[in-house]
Protein backbone atom coordinates (compact mmCIF):
# COMPACT_ATOMS: atom_id res chain seq x y z
CA UNK A 1 0.00 0.00 0.00
CA UNK A 2 1.43 3.37 -1.02
CA UNK A 3 2.36 5.78 1.70
CA UNK A 4 0.60 9.16 1.74
CA UNK A 5 3.27 11.92 1.93
CA UNK A 6 3.28 14.15 4.94
CA UNK A 7 1.82 17.62 4.27
CA UNK A 8 4.49 20.33 4.13
CA UNK A 9 3.97 24.00 5.02
CA UNK A 10 7.34 25.73 4.75
CA UNK A 11 8.25 28.91 6.66
CA UNK A 12 7.81 32.23 4.92
CA UNK A 13 11.57 32.73 4.50
CA UNK A 14 12.00 29.38 2.77
CA UNK A 15 9.00 30.01 0.53
CA UNK A 16 10.48 33.38 -0.46
CA UNK A 17 13.79 31.69 -1.32
CA UNK A 18 11.95 29.23 -3.57
CA UNK A 19 10.17 32.11 -5.30
CA UNK A 20 13.42 34.02 -5.92
CA UNK A 21 15.04 30.92 -7.41
CA UNK A 22 12.01 30.40 -9.63
CA UNK A 23 12.15 34.00 -10.85
CA UNK A 24 15.81 33.55 -11.76
CA UNK A 25 15.08 30.36 -13.68
CA UNK A 26 12.16 31.98 -15.56
CA UNK A 27 13.93 35.31 -15.96
CA UNK A 28 12.36 36.14 -19.33
CA UNK A 29 8.80 35.56 -18.11
CA UNK A 30 9.56 37.46 -14.92
CA UNK A 31 10.86 40.47 -16.85
CA UNK A 32 7.74 40.50 -19.04
CA UNK A 33 5.51 40.53 -15.96
CA UNK A 34 7.59 43.23 -14.29
CA UNK A 35 7.50 45.29 -17.49
CA UNK A 36 3.70 45.24 -17.46
CA UNK A 37 3.68 46.72 -13.97
CA UNK A 38 6.50 49.14 -14.84
CA UNK A 39 4.78 50.61 -17.91
CA UNK A 40 1.44 51.10 -16.19
CA UNK A 41 2.93 52.78 -13.12
CA UNK A 42 5.31 54.82 -15.30
CA UNK A 43 2.36 56.28 -17.21
CA UNK A 44 0.58 56.99 -13.92
CA UNK A 45 3.55 58.79 -12.35
CA UNK A 46 4.46 60.66 -15.54
CA UNK A 47 0.93 62.06 -15.77
CA UNK A 48 0.82 62.92 -12.06
CA UNK A 49 4.26 64.57 -12.16
CA UNK A 50 3.30 66.59 -15.22
CA UNK A 51 0.15 67.79 -13.49
CA UNK A 52 2.21 68.79 -10.44
CA UNK A 53 4.75 70.67 -12.58
CA UNK A 54 2.05 72.50 -14.53
CA UNK A 55 0.44 73.56 -11.26
CA UNK A 56 3.79 74.92 -10.03
CA UNK A 57 4.55 76.88 -13.21
CA UNK A 58 1.01 78.19 -13.64
CA UNK A 59 2.18 81.78 -13.07
CA UNK A 60 4.97 81.32 -15.62
CA UNK A 61 2.47 79.98 -18.15
CA UNK A 62 0.25 83.00 -17.51
CA UNK A 63 3.15 85.40 -18.11
CA UNK A 64 4.16 83.61 -21.30
CA UNK A 65 0.57 83.67 -22.50
CA UNK A 66 0.30 87.41 -21.80
CA UNK A 67 3.53 88.13 -23.70
CA UNK A 68 2.38 86.02 -26.64
CA UNK A 69 -1.02 87.71 -26.68
CA UNK A 70 0.40 91.25 -26.61
CA UNK A 71 2.96 90.41 -29.29
CA UNK A 72 0.23 88.98 -31.51
CA UNK A 73 -1.87 92.13 -31.10
CA UNK A 74 1.08 94.26 -32.16
CA UNK A 75 2.13 92.11 -35.12
CA UNK A 76 -1.46 91.85 -36.36
CA UNK A 77 -1.45 95.66 -36.68
CA UNK A 78 2.11 96.28 -37.91
CA UNK A 79 2.77 93.02 -39.68
CA UNK A 80 6.26 91.65 -39.24
CA UNK A 81 8.39 93.67 -36.81
CA UNK A 82 11.60 92.98 -38.68
CA UNK A 83 13.16 96.18 -39.96
CA UNK A 84 10.82 98.45 -37.95
CA UNK A 85 11.64 100.80 -35.09
CA UNK A 86 9.52 101.05 -31.95
CA UNK A 87 9.43 103.82 -29.35
CA UNK A 88 9.09 102.97 -25.66
CA UNK A 89 7.64 105.10 -22.90
CA UNK A 90 6.88 103.86 -19.38
CA UNK A 91 4.70 105.80 -16.98
CA UNK A 92 4.90 103.03 -14.41
CA UNK A 93 7.40 100.30 -13.60
CA UNK A 94 6.92 97.40 -16.06
CA UNK A 95 5.51 94.13 -14.80
CA UNK A 96 7.30 90.87 -15.51
CA UNK A 97 5.10 90.25 -18.55
CA UNK A 98 5.72 93.79 -19.87
CA UNK A 99 9.48 93.44 -19.30
CA UNK A 100 9.53 90.23 -21.31
CA UNK A 101 7.41 91.86 -24.00
CA UNK A 102 9.97 94.63 -24.40
CA UNK A 103 12.81 92.12 -24.54
CA UNK A 104 10.94 90.20 -27.24
CA UNK A 105 10.29 93.39 -29.21
CA UNK A 106 13.96 94.34 -28.95
CA UNK A 107 14.85 90.94 -30.36
CA UNK A 108 12.44 91.16 -33.30
CA UNK A 109 12.71 94.84 -34.28
CA UNK A 110 15.54 96.77 -35.79
CA UNK A 111 15.48 99.53 -33.13
CA UNK A 112 13.77 99.96 -29.77
CA UNK A 113 14.05 103.63 -28.76
CA UNK A 114 13.80 104.90 -25.17
CA UNK A 115 14.21 108.38 -23.75
CA UNK A 116 16.59 108.81 -20.78
CA UNK A 117 14.21 110.81 -18.56
CA UNK A 118 11.95 107.89 -17.55
CA UNK A 119 12.21 107.07 -13.81
CA UNK A 120 10.06 103.94 -14.24
CA UNK A 121 12.80 102.33 -16.33
CA UNK A 122 15.74 103.16 -14.09
CA UNK A 123 15.29 100.11 -11.83
CA UNK A 124 15.15 97.71 -14.77
CA UNK A 125 17.84 97.80 -17.44
CA UNK A 126 15.94 97.15 -20.64
CA UNK A 127 17.30 96.52 -24.11
CA UNK A 128 17.08 99.32 -26.63
CA UNK A 129 18.68 102.47 -27.96
CA UNK A 130 18.59 105.68 -25.90
CA UNK A 131 17.57 108.89 -27.62
CA UNK A 132 18.48 112.34 -26.21
CA UNK A 133 14.91 113.58 -25.74
CA UNK A 134 11.42 112.16 -25.55
CA UNK A 135 10.65 113.97 -28.80
CA UNK A 136 13.04 111.58 -30.54
CA UNK A 137 10.55 108.80 -29.98
CA UNK A 138 8.28 110.37 -32.59
CA UNK A 139 10.53 108.99 -35.33
CA UNK A 140 9.49 105.40 -34.62
CA UNK A 141 7.01 103.38 -36.67
CA UNK A 142 4.90 102.78 -33.57
CA UNK A 143 4.95 103.67 -29.89
CA UNK A 144 4.68 101.15 -27.05
CA UNK A 145 3.42 102.72 -23.82
CA UNK A 146 3.68 101.00 -20.42
CA UNK A 147 0.97 102.19 -18.05
CA UNK A 148 -2.60 103.44 -18.07
CA UNK A 149 -3.86 106.66 -19.68
CA UNK A 150 -3.71 108.47 -16.34
CA UNK A 151 -0.11 107.42 -15.70
CA UNK A 152 1.06 108.47 -19.17
CA UNK A 153 -1.18 111.51 -19.71
CA UNK A 154 1.73 113.96 -20.13
CA UNK A 155 3.46 111.85 -22.76
CA UNK A 156 0.21 111.23 -24.63
CA UNK A 157 -0.36 115.00 -24.72
CA UNK A 158 3.03 115.42 -26.43
CA UNK A 159 2.01 112.84 -29.03
CA UNK A 160 -1.28 114.66 -29.63
CA UNK A 161 0.46 118.03 -30.03
CA UNK A 162 2.89 116.47 -32.51
CA UNK A 163 -0.04 114.92 -34.44
CA UNK A 164 1.49 111.49 -34.09
CA UNK A 165 -0.38 109.40 -36.66
CA UNK A 166 1.11 105.99 -36.06
CA UNK A 167 -0.20 103.31 -33.65
CA UNK A 168 0.15 103.89 -29.92
CA UNK A 169 0.18 100.43 -28.33
CA UNK A 170 -0.73 100.59 -24.65
CA UNK A 171 -0.27 97.57 -22.43
CA UNK A 172 -2.88 98.61 -19.83
CA UNK A 173 -5.59 100.06 -22.01
CA UNK A 174 -8.69 98.05 -22.77
CA UNK A 175 -10.80 98.55 -25.87
CA UNK A 176 -13.63 99.90 -23.68
CA UNK A 177 -11.42 102.82 -22.61
CA UNK A 178 -10.88 104.12 -26.15
CA UNK A 179 -13.26 106.84 -27.35
CA UNK A 180 -14.25 107.83 -30.90
CA UNK A 181 -12.90 111.40 -30.44
CA UNK A 182 -9.34 110.25 -29.61
CA UNK A 183 -6.86 112.08 -31.82
CA UNK A 184 -4.36 109.26 -31.36
CA UNK A 185 -4.70 105.81 -32.82
CA UNK A 186 -4.68 103.61 -29.70
CA UNK A 187 -3.89 99.90 -29.98
CA UNK A 188 -4.92 98.16 -26.71
CA UNK A 189 -2.60 95.33 -25.70
CA UNK A 190 -4.52 94.48 -22.56
CA UNK A 191 -4.57 90.80 -21.61
CA UNK A 192 -7.99 90.99 -19.98
CA UNK A 193 -10.13 88.15 -21.28
CA UNK A 194 -13.76 88.40 -22.22
CA UNK A 195 -16.45 86.30 -20.57
CA UNK A 196 -16.55 84.02 -23.61
CA UNK A 197 -12.79 83.48 -23.48
CA UNK A 198 -12.88 82.78 -19.73
CA UNK A 199 -15.72 80.30 -20.26
CA UNK A 200 -13.75 78.63 -23.06
CA UNK A 201 -10.69 78.35 -20.82
CA UNK A 202 -12.76 76.83 -18.00
CA UNK A 203 -14.28 74.33 -20.41
CA UNK A 204 -10.83 73.45 -21.73
CA UNK A 205 -9.55 72.84 -18.18
CA UNK A 206 -12.51 70.57 -17.42
CA UNK A 207 -11.89 68.65 -20.62
CA UNK A 208 -8.21 68.31 -19.73
CA UNK A 209 -9.08 66.92 -16.29
CA UNK A 210 -11.49 64.38 -17.83
CA UNK A 211 -8.84 63.43 -20.38
CA UNK A 212 -6.22 62.90 -17.68
CA UNK A 213 -8.66 60.79 -15.64
CA UNK A 214 -9.53 58.73 -18.72
CA UNK A 215 -5.85 58.13 -19.57
CA UNK A 216 -5.04 57.13 -15.99
CA UNK A 217 -8.04 54.80 -15.88
CA UNK A 218 -7.02 53.12 -19.13
CA UNK A 219 -3.42 52.82 -17.89
CA UNK A 220 -4.54 51.12 -14.67
CA UNK A 221 -6.93 48.84 -16.56
CA UNK A 222 -4.22 47.77 -19.02
CA UNK A 223 -1.84 47.19 -16.11
CA UNK A 224 -4.48 45.12 -14.32
CA UNK A 225 -5.19 42.95 -17.37
CA UNK A 226 -1.50 42.53 -18.19
CA UNK A 227 -0.57 41.41 -14.70
CA UNK A 228 -3.52 39.01 -14.48
CA UNK A 229 -2.68 37.51 -17.86
CA UNK A 230 1.01 37.13 -16.95
CA UNK A 231 0.20 35.47 -13.61
CA UNK A 232 -2.29 33.09 -15.25
CA UNK A 233 0.30 32.16 -17.86
CA UNK A 234 2.80 31.56 -15.06
CA UNK A 235 0.34 29.17 -13.41
CA UNK A 236 -0.48 27.42 -16.70
CA UNK A 237 3.11 26.72 -17.69
CA UNK A 238 3.86 25.38 -14.19
CA UNK A 239 1.08 22.78 -13.94
CA UNK A 240 3.56 19.89 -13.66
CA UNK A 241 5.64 21.79 -11.08
CA UNK A 242 2.52 22.42 -8.97
CA UNK A 243 1.49 18.77 -9.27
CA UNK A 244 4.97 17.64 -8.26
CA UNK A 245 4.98 19.92 -5.21
CA UNK A 246 1.59 18.60 -4.11
CA UNK A 247 2.69 15.01 -4.60
CA UNK A 248 5.68 15.73 -2.36
CA UNK A 249 3.36 16.99 0.35
CA UNK A 250 3.01 20.75 -0.31
CA UNK A 251 -0.23 22.12 1.07
CA UNK A 252 -2.62 24.29 -0.90
CA UNK A 253 -1.77 27.09 1.51
CA UNK A 254 1.94 26.80 0.63
CA UNK A 255 1.24 26.88 -3.13
CA UNK A 256 -0.98 29.92 -2.71
CA UNK A 257 1.66 31.62 -0.56
CA UNK A 258 4.37 31.00 -3.18
CA UNK A 259 2.36 32.69 -5.92
CA UNK A 260 1.39 35.63 -3.71
CA UNK A 261 5.03 36.16 -2.67
CA UNK A 262 6.01 36.08 -6.34
CA UNK A 263 3.39 38.70 -7.16
CA UNK A 264 4.62 40.85 -4.26
CA UNK A 265 8.21 40.77 -5.54
CA UNK A 266 7.08 41.52 -9.09
CA UNK A 267 4.82 44.34 -7.89
CA UNK A 268 7.44 46.03 -5.71
CA UNK A 269 10.21 45.89 -8.30
CA UNK A 270 7.98 46.93 -11.21
CA UNK A 271 6.23 49.70 -9.27
CA UNK A 272 9.47 51.17 -7.95
CA UNK A 273 11.12 51.18 -11.36
CA UNK A 274 7.99 52.52 -13.05
CA UNK A 275 7.50 55.31 -10.52
CA UNK A 276 11.10 56.50 -10.87
CA UNK A 277 11.20 56.23 -14.67
CA UNK A 278 7.83 57.95 -15.13
CA UNK A 279 8.78 60.85 -12.85
CA UNK A 280 12.23 61.25 -14.42
CA UNK A 281 10.78 61.22 -17.94
CA UNK A 282 8.21 63.89 -17.08
CA UNK A 283 10.77 66.05 -15.25
CA UNK A 284 13.24 65.79 -18.14
CA UNK A 285 10.56 66.88 -20.62
CA UNK A 286 9.46 69.91 -18.58
CA UNK A 287 13.09 70.75 -17.83
CA UNK A 288 13.54 71.30 -21.57
CA UNK A 289 10.35 73.39 -21.77
CA UNK A 290 10.83 75.61 -18.70
CA UNK A 291 14.51 75.26 -17.79
CA UNK A 292 16.08 73.58 -14.75
CA UNK A 293 16.01 76.65 -12.48
CA UNK A 294 12.29 77.36 -12.90
CA UNK A 295 11.40 73.68 -12.64
CA UNK A 296 13.30 73.14 -9.39
CA UNK A 297 12.04 76.39 -7.87
CA UNK A 298 8.37 75.69 -8.63
CA UNK A 299 8.28 71.96 -7.82
CA UNK A 300 6.95 70.83 -4.44
CA UNK A 301 9.26 67.89 -3.68
CA UNK A 302 7.19 66.78 -0.69
CA UNK A 303 4.04 66.41 -2.78
CA UNK A 304 6.04 64.69 -5.53
CA UNK A 305 7.37 62.17 -3.01
CA UNK A 306 3.81 61.45 -1.84
CA UNK A 307 2.71 60.94 -5.47
CA UNK A 308 5.55 58.46 -6.02
CA UNK A 309 4.76 56.59 -2.81
CA UNK A 310 1.08 56.40 -3.76
CA UNK A 311 2.01 55.09 -7.23
CA UNK A 312 4.26 52.39 -5.76
CA UNK A 313 1.57 51.31 -3.29
CA UNK A 314 -1.00 51.26 -6.11
CA UNK A 315 1.27 49.08 -8.24
CA UNK A 316 1.89 46.60 -5.41
CA UNK A 317 -1.80 46.52 -4.49
CA UNK A 318 -2.90 45.90 -8.09
CA UNK A 319 -0.31 43.16 -8.54
CA UNK A 320 -1.44 41.32 -5.42
CA UNK A 321 -5.11 41.71 -6.35
CA UNK A 322 -4.39 40.32 -9.82
CA UNK A 323 -2.51 37.36 -8.34
CA UNK A 324 -5.30 36.22 -6.01
CA UNK A 325 -7.27 34.36 -8.68
CA UNK A 326 -4.25 32.66 -10.34
CA UNK A 327 -2.95 31.68 -6.89
CA UNK A 328 -6.34 30.19 -6.01
CA UNK A 329 -6.37 28.23 -9.28
CA UNK A 330 -2.89 26.86 -8.56
CA UNK A 331 -3.66 25.92 -4.96
CA UNK A 332 -6.88 24.10 -5.82
CA UNK A 333 -5.39 21.89 -8.53
CA UNK A 334 -5.56 18.12 -8.17
CA UNK A 335 -2.04 16.67 -8.36
CA UNK A 336 -3.00 13.95 -10.83
CA UNK A 337 -4.66 16.42 -13.18
CA UNK A 338 -1.65 18.79 -13.01
CA UNK A 339 0.79 15.99 -13.79
CA UNK A 340 -1.21 14.88 -16.84
CA UNK A 341 -0.93 18.39 -18.36
CA UNK A 342 1.19 18.75 -21.51
CA UNK A 343 1.58 22.58 -21.26
Summarize the structure.
The protein is an alpha/beta fold and 343 residues long. It contains 11 helices and 6 strands.
Q: Would you give an account of this structure?
A:
The protein has 343 residues and is α/β, with parallel strands linked by helices. It folds into two domains: 12-59 and 196-339, no CATH class; 66-194, 3-Layer(aba) Sandwich (Rossmann fold). The protein has helices at 12-25, 27-56, 58-78, 96-108, 153-161, 195-236, 239-247, 252-290, 292-298, 301-331, 335-339, and strands spanning 85-90, 111-114, 129-130, 142-146, 168-170, 186-188. It is rod-shaped, with a radius of gyration of 34 Å. The protein starts with 11 loop residues before the first helix and ends with a helix. The model has no long low-confidence stretch (mean pLDDT 80).
| H/E series | HHHEHEEEHEEHHHHHH
Going across the biggest sheet, name each strand in turn: 3-2-1-4-5-6
Q: What's the average pLDDT?
A: 80
Which percent bin holds the helix content? Answer: 55-70%
Largest sheet: 6 strands, parallel
In DSSP terms (H or I, runs of 4 or more residues), the helix count works out at 11
What does the overall shape look like?
rod-shaped
Low-confidence stretches: none
C-alpha end-to-end distance: 31 Å
Number of strands: 6
Amino acid sequence: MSRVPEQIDLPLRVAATIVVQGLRIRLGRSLVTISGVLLGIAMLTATATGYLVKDGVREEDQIRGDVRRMTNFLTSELGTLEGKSLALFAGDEPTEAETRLLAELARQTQRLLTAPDQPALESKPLPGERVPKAAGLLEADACVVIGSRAETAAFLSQLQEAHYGRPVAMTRLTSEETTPDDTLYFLPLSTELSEQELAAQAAEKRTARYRVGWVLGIALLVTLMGITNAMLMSVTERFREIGTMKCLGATSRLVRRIFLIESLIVGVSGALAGALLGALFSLAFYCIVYGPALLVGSLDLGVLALWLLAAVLAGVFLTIICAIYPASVASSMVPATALRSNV
